[in-house]
Amino acid sequence: MKAIRNVGRLFTPGHEVRRDVDVLIDGERIAAVVPAGTGRGDDDSFDCRGALVTPGLIDAHTHPVYAAPRLEEVARRAAGASYSEIASLGGGINATVASTRDTPIEVLQEGARSRFSRWLEQGTTTLEAKSGYWLNHTGEIEAVRLMAALSADPSLPRLCVTFLGAHELPAEFRDDRDSFVREVESWSEEAAGAGAQFCDVFCDQGAFSVDEARAILLAGRRAGLGLRIHADEIALTGGSHLAAELGVASADHLLRIGDAEITALKRAGCTATLCPVTALNMGQLPPARSLIERGVPIALGTDHNPGTSGTTSMSLVVYLAVCEFKMTVDEAVTAATWGGARSLQLHDRGLIEDGMLADLTMWDADHEGAFAWEPGLRAMAVWRGGQLVKGSS
């Protein structure tokens, strides 16, 4: 039995904050939370010295496998170019597809490994990881297989792999959309066999229509995959209503939605995954307060990708959710832990309770209010399944 001792403040969603406690760990799971000094543990204990401990953060939306960031494009956007204008000039997702296809898989794997290590160093113990930068059969399946293999590495965060073959229409299919949609539908079963847990579609203006997205998602469901959707980010095109129709696990971005879409998501029990960094880059915020007040569960994501968000810091995302989305600290930290677990349909993490995975983060603070005070609050120690993977006792 291991013990994480002298936790000054223990934050876990749905419970009153507990002060001055020890967390006892048996194997990979939490055995008990007890008053400080009352629990028995072996010599392998860690003294938190009164610091704040939360569940390990969960990043519910990322695009982590690519060749290089599109930094020139980022600068053009900062100078006033729109997402659609950049895409029309050959930038955007298809620019990353071209460079990623030309990069050896071993190089891409090492780049992804380095990024995943940064997530863990910054307090994230689980993240959703999408394919989507090959847009062909061989590359998309290889990307899923790459991420599934890295997920087994105990020195990295746990990964929940999403097949995103329909991220964009590739250049070679510009004049034959129907054929590409049928191809992506046919890849779902192999993606599931390679280790994907979800199927996702970018359903929006300039990407895939509601009918195209429905066909691809239903193929994913037939293959045994859970469903996610990029919806109503660039324009209000019906993605949120499709999310509700299909009962997807998560509808993401949602920058353009209104009352009707919020009502539909609530009735369907969908989680709304919001990405503050990308929202700020797009110059449009989602209606976070309305979603919360109407009872739609919220998750948060970095949306790490090579074009609009380079961060791997979920503590920065929590800060932005408080400052820009006007979420309370409790709401934002909950969205970054339990909310992320709900978005990913994972029932064994996101809370500090008996029997849950011992995925925990200790912060350089003694109160959760620090998340709203310091952008990118520093993680001092991180445990993955009870093993200390950052910090020293």
List key phrases describing it.
393 residues, 8-stranded parallel beta sheet, 14 helices, 16 strands
Q: How would you characterize the overall build of this protein?
A:
The protein has 393 residues and is an alpha/beta fold. The protein is built from 14 helices and 16 strands. The strands form 2 sheets. Strands 1, 2, 3, 4, 5, 14, 15 and 16 form an 8-stranded mixed β-sheet that branches. A hairpin with a 2-residue loop joins β15 and β16.
The low-confidence runs, each spanning 5 or more residues with pLDDT under 50, are: none
The radius of gyration computed from the alpha-carbon positions, rounded to a whole number of angstroms, is: 21 Å
Q: How does the helix and strand content classify structurally? A: alpha/beta
Count the beta strands: 16
Return the average pLDDT rounded to an integer: 96
Please tally the helical runs, counting DSSP H or I stretches of 4 or more residues: 14
Q: In percent, how much strand structure appears in the residues? A: 15-25%
Distance between the termini: 16 Å
Into which percent range does the helicity of residues fall? 25-40%
Q: Major β-sheet, in short?
A: 8 strands, mixed
Label the overall shape: globular
Instruction: Tell me the series of helices and strands, N- to C-terminal.
Output: EEEEEEHHHHEHEHEHEHEHEHHEHHHEEE
